[in-house]
Amino acid sequence: MWLNDTCELLICMCDKLCLRLCIKTFVFRISVCYSLLFFLFLFKNLNHQIMTSTKALKLAFIHPDLGIGGAERLVVDAASSLKAKGHKVVIYTSHHDKEHCFEETKDGALEVRVRGDTIIPPTLSGSFYAVCAILRQLHLTLSMIFSDREEFDVIFVDQLSANIPLLRFAGAKVLFYCHFPDKLLTQRETTAKSLYRIPIDIIEELTTGMANCLVVNSKFTSNVFCESFATIKTMPQILYPGIRFEAYDKKVNTDDESVKILETSKNIILSINRFERKKDIVLAIRAFSMLQEDGLISAEKFRNTRLIIAGGYDHRVQENVAHHLDLNKVALRLDLIVHNIMPDSISAPPESAQVVFLCSFNEAQRTYLLSKALCLIYTPSNEHFGIVPIEAMYARLPVIACNSGGPKETIIDGETGVLCDSNSEAFAGVIASFVNGDYDREAMGNKGRSHVQKSFSLDTFINSLEDLLIKLASDNSQNTKFPIQFPLVLFSTLISLFLILYNYFDRLFL
User: Fold this and answer.
1) 141 and which of 30, 163, 348, 471 could share a cystine (Cβ 3.0–4.6 Å)?
2) How far is CA 501 from CA 13, 64, 494, 509, in A?
3) Shared-domain flag, residues 297 and 330
4) pLDDT in tens, 354-411
5) Please, how many CA atoms are within 13 Å of residue 351, restricted to the half-sphere of its CB?
6) Contact indicator for 434, 469 with CB cutoff of 8 Å
7) So what's the pLDDT on residue 501?
8) Residues whose CB is less than 8 angstroms from the CB of residue 155 and which lie 6 or more positions away in sequence, other chains included
9) What is the pLDDT of residues 165-215, one digit of tens each?
10) By C-alpha distance, which of 256, 240, 279 is closest to 366?
């Protein structure tokens, strides 16, 4: 107990020291806090209590930004379901905007603790996303260890792995869920960006391999994982994400104001993706335009068809904002009539609107769109899994997707949807076939629903995940070992401390 009190006192002193010495630069402020906290961390080791399979587990989820997306949906569903099974669950995050999150995280159904958001900003002048995300996660983890003083049987970590050594050294058992290697999700347009990513990529591989249990979301991701992380010899286990069927069984609420603005008598071609370049939403717009340009459907049918592009949109994320503007320009250059529905907007599109951008949507809107749409077009290539096609198939909505990545494992080509080449011509041809009634949508929809019920239920995912967590918690062979990388971290910490002290004495005597 005395050590915890000492930690809190020194953290407070550290912050005051930064102000007193007028150390206002980002680097020195972080170095002061990081060095003192990590120095104390040498003397602290959580007592880890092993739980048996007959006893409820204490579980923590660590997710960097609890917004709206496939990864966030997985974390929220997993946490909710495990809590319903009697386990104690807490979600830790560095950012939780209650205006841009899933309902369960703001209505009290789940305990969400925001940590690691007071020292490091999300970016530095719009750059250094990865470095800031890593530092925020380390700050979150140190706050979790020293301030919250809770012991967890297993900690579920996803997206970022940099904090795994800290958790392991503290005595925790860690399950790392890899949605996709982060090193493959970044663009390296310049030599400087490539050099900048080298240490980050090394850290990702070293820290990922330190998890007690590694899990991925598809066979495709498993293969990419093994190719990308050559030094990790452990084969990750595959757990396909699932969906909560009851969340998609709700009836359309036509009294909801957010639904009313979407109501239309037109045929809806639906695209659901975050506003990110890697999702290749441009393909959807070009394919839609080709329906008219190439005469794939009649002029009358085209007038009666609308493309709705719905997706996660966060005004804090520069790419979301910039890409949304780029997509508008693409549509306008193709002479399409565009309407934008921004978050909290109550402006309904005019009947003439051909492309509607729905920037973030709620469950009521999702229910309406999945029930009303003619088909869903899913444009990302080599998508690691893709939860959206699962949602659509359960809603009896046929899916058109690229013949690569996770969709090859989830969509039965010609039966629950259509897999095609990743180009606008191929997509336009299949969309036209649906508009012209060449496919039996009812049969395809029924097949899709039964396929999802059989293979992608949340219960199947949760039962498998729970088995892994219980096994990990009760496995004595998984007790924490002193990581060999730790002396390197300690050395870098001491160097940082030396630089701080040097700066301090320099201010005193010069």
Assistant:
1) 163
2) 15, 32, 10, 12
3) yes
4) 999 999 999 999 999 999 999 999 999 999 999 999 999 999 999 999 999 999 999 9
5) 4
6) no
7) 44
8) 59, 60, 61, 62, 167, 172, 173, 174, 175
9) 999 988 999 999 999 999 998 888 888 888 889 999 999 999 999 999 999
10) 256
Q: Domain span at residue 6?
A: 1-48+482-510
Pair 54, 39 in one domain: no
* 144-166: average pLDDT: 92
The answer for residues whose C-beta is within 8 angstroms of residue 446's C-beta and 6 or more apart is: 396
Nearest to 312 by CA among 261, 371, 272, 363: 272
Asked whether residue 89 falls in the same domain as residue 238, the answer is yes
Is 248 among the domain residues? no
Structure tokens belonging to residue 190:
């310049």
> Alpha carbon of 207 to those of 72, 270, 438: distances in Å?
22, 39, 51
247 falls within a domain: no
H-only helix segments in 336-457 = 363-372, 387-394, 407-410, 424-435, 441-455
Q: How far apart are CA 387 and CA 244, in angstroms?
A: 12
* Distance of alpha carbon 201 from alpha carbon 6, whole angstroms: 35
Q: How far apart are CA 208 and CA 204, in angstroms?
A: 6
Q: How is residue 124 annotated by DSSP?
A: B
- Work out the mean pLDDT of the chain and round it to a whole number: 86
439 and 323: one domain?
yes
The structure tokens listed for 34 are 């990081």
Burial annotation 347-356 (CB, 10 A radius, 16+ → b, else e):
ebbeeebbbb
Comparing C-alpha atoms, which of 181, 152, 215, 242 is closest to residue 454? 242
